[in-house]
Automatic annotation (TrEMBL), chain A:
Coiled-coil annotated residue ranges, if any: none
Cofactors required: thiamine diphosphate
Gene3D superfamilies linked to this entry: 3.40.50.970
Alphabetical list of PANTHER family matching this protein: TRANSKETOLASE N-TERMINAL SECTION-RELATED
Keywords linked to the UniProt accession: Thiamine pyrophosphate
Protein name (record): Transketolase
Domain Transketolase N-terminal: 10-257
Pfam families xref list: Transketolase_N
Family note: Belongs to the transketolase family.
TrEMBL record, chain B:
Originating species: Zongyangia hominis
Keyword Protein biosynthesis: no
InterPro entries in alphabetical order: PDH/Transketolase, THDP-binding, Transketo_C/PFOR_II, Transketolase-like_Pyr-bd, Transketolase_C
CDD domains, per database record: TPP_PYR_DXS_TK_like
Membrane-crossing segments per the record: none
Keywords from the named record: Thiamine pyrophosphate
Ranges for domain Transketolase-like pyrimidine-binding: 4-163
Protein name: Transketolase family protein
Entry similarity comment: Belongs to the transketolase family.
Cofactor(s) of this protein: thiamine diphosphate
SMART domains named in the record: Transket_pyr (SM00861)
Matching PANTHER family: PYRUVATE DEHYDROGENASE E1 COMPONENT, TRANSKETOLASE-LIKE PYRIMIDINE-BINDING DOMAIN-CONTAINING PROTEIN
Pfam family, one: Transketolase_C
Keyword Cytoplasm on entry: no
Length: 274, 307
């Protein structure tokens, strides 16, 4: 699949801005985890995915499962920019009768491939999607985005074992390793370390890179796709910063999981992401 | 029901290439392990990981497949309750959930394996349909209908103990309660394992000159209140008989429906009275929980006296 030349940095900036704007319009939201995966989403939607905004249900399309469903707003901003739905929907985040709920819903939002938000479930669903693609032999790749805190859920590891057992080389998962969760740092709560060894021992091809370096993300995805030919699923651990791009969020990474954005805070945020 | 289970799914999977059968290390118990020989891509075992099994099924459904997940009732409805609620029902996924060995039919697997609450749990999940066949012949008729139903459904399946309830051919409508025997004195509305026990109770009552009407309420949600209400309008009283806690199951479903219809008649309930299960064979368990035909007959006489 060929992609039109775009300035990825510019796209990431737009996605970050519209995500922040949607959250600020609502007045509060999951700012931290939305900001930490902006670069990943940018690379996926502008350089990797075989999808068609005019035909969101296209057969054989690549699929994205935002297992950390609270990062829905980042996806919504991207999907709107891609033309899946009008840009003005972004102003309706979490409003009554919206098509854009705080957590991803496949029945409400064009371009969302799986409902997620009850943590731990999206990844298992992605494994089912990957198996579906294998049965159909349609050549699709299934991408799943996991939170680091989310990876404390037991069913993540049930799904990892099955993905490996069933040789789902068409599954590429990411851990948005921003290292903070609601109550504290991940390492202070229940550590995932040694995260690389864990995934490797579960039978995955494992990679890591800077989750805000889009060139590195793209190259790592390409590598994972090639390595996936060995019929092993892949895990790409993305080292990220919670709240990336918004200074007061970056300064309070444990506190920025969900935060109110109004008044001076909003003004500061807009000045930084414009 | 075990051989039927395997035979019918073999037939179904031959006819419908979208059907996927998912086990969680109980394929041998279910008789479904042979499906893997003919359908290696679509008969899958994900191991002892029921939450994952349900998520996986939801993902397959999102890819256009019709997955069935089978395991013992408590491991499905208790352990994977959130997955069933969110990834299946909330996400509108067409996943069929088969809980086997419900209630006391878990027998010697004991209390840990006995679901006395599964209908109550599944019934309160929005959109969920609950079906419990009374015998193998009925399950055979129901399966193609279930397969064509495009939404989630919970099937409460007696793996080994189903007694024959039907003689000869019979009509089956998934959403209509079945009048198995017409009667004038008391309505006995039963489901699953208790339908055959209700038939035996009707025989006991007949010896005393009492003519019981027997309803096979195979679909507990949505409940066919119309048929049940019409029956009690005729008989004037009701006994419910279920292999489940009397809280949250068949009795609750019928009485909730009656309250909406303003139907008020004397009732008696047969079922587990808010107890956990325990180990034992069916005769012991039926006696312990007062679920024998004799208990149903006694309840019928008691409720007739209240008319």
């Amino acid at each position: 699949m060929s992609f039109p030349e775009v300035d990825l940095k510019e796209k990431a900036k737009e996605i970050r801005y519209h995500t922040c704007d949607a959250i600020a319009t609502h007045g509060a939201g999951h700012l931290g985890g939305c900001m930490s995966c902006v670069e990943l989403i940018t690379v996926l939607y502008y350089k990797v995915l075989n999808i068609d905004p005019k035909n969101p249900q296209m057969e054989g399309r690549d699929r994205v499962v935002m297992s950390k469903g609270h990062a829905g707003p980042t996806l919504y901003a991207t999907l709107a920019l891609k033309g899946f739905f009008p840009m003005d929907w972004l102003k309706t985040l979490n409003a009554s009768n919206t098509n854009l709920p705080s957590h991803c819903d496949m029945n409400k939002t064009p371009g969302i491939d799986m409902t997620a938000g009850s943590l731990g479930q999206g990844f298992g669903c992605a494994v089912g999607l990957a198996k579906g693609s294998k049965i159909m032999n349609d050549g699709a790749t299934i991408y799943a985005i996991l939170g680091d805190g989310e990876s404390q859920e037991g069913s993540i590891w049930e799904a990892a074992m099955t993905a490996s057992q069933q040789k789902l080389g068409n599954l590429i998962a990411f851990t948005d390793y921003n290292k903070a969760q609601i109550d504290d740092w991940v390492d202070e709560t229940v550590s995932l370390e040694p995260i690389m060894d864990k995934w490797e021992s579960f039978g995955f091809n494992v990679f890591e890179c800077d989750g805000h370096d889009m060139d590195a993300i793209y190259k790592t995805i390409c590598l994972a796709k090639r390595k996936g030919m060995n019929n092993k699923p892949s895990m790409i651990v993305l080292h990220t910063v919670k709240g990336k791009g918004v200074s007061f969020a970056e300064a309070d990474q444990v506190g920025c999981h969900h935060m109110g954005i109004a008044g001076e805070k909003a003004a500061q945020m807009y000045s930084e992401v414009k | 029901m075990k051989p039927i289970f395997h035979e019918e799914f073999t037939k179904l999977m031959r006819e419908d290439e979208k059907v996927v059968f998912i086990d969680a290390d109980l394929a041998k118990a279910h008789g479904s392990e042979n499906l893997r020989k003919e359908f290696p891509d679509r008969a899958l075992d994900v191991g002892i990981a029921e939450q994952m099994a349900v998520e996986y099924a939801a993902g397959l459904s999102a890819y256009g497949f019709k997955p069935y997940v089978a395991t013992f009732t408590p491991f499905l409805t208790r352990r994977a309750c959130d997955q069933i609620t969110i990834s299946v029902c909330y996400a509108k996924r067409n996943v069929k959930l088969i809980g086997t060995d419900p209630g006391i039919t878990a027998e010697t697997n004991g209390g840990t394996h006995m679901s006395m609450e599964d209908i109550g749990v599944m019934r309160s999940i929005p959109t969920m349909v609950i079906y419990e066949p009374a015998d193998a012949a009925e399950f055979k008729k129901a399966l193609p209908v279930i397969n064509d139903y495009p939404h989630a459904m919970y099937i409460r399946h007696q793996r080994t103990q189903a007694q024959d309830v039907h003689e000869g051919d019979f009509e089956f409508d998934l959403f209509k309660a079945e009048v198995l025997k017409e009667g004038a004195d008391v309505t006995i509305a039963a489901s699953g394992y208790m339908v055959a026990e209700a038939q035996k109770a009707a025989d006991l009552l007949a010896k005393e000159g009492i003519n019981a009407e027997i309803l096979n309420v195979h679909t507990i949600k949505p409940i066919d209140g119309e048929t049940i209400a019409a029956s009690v309008k005729k008989t004037g009283c009701l006994v419910t008989a279920e292999n489940h806690n009397i809280v949250g199951g068949l009795r609750s479903a019928i009485l909730e429906d009656f309250s909406e219809r303003d139907v008020y008649v004397p009732t008696e309930a047969i079922g587990v009275r808010d107890h956990f299960g325990e180990v034992g064979f069916l005769p012991f368990l039926q006696e312990k929980y007062k679920m024998r035909p004799e208990d149903i007959a006694e309840a019928a006489k008691k409720v007739i006296a209240k008319k």
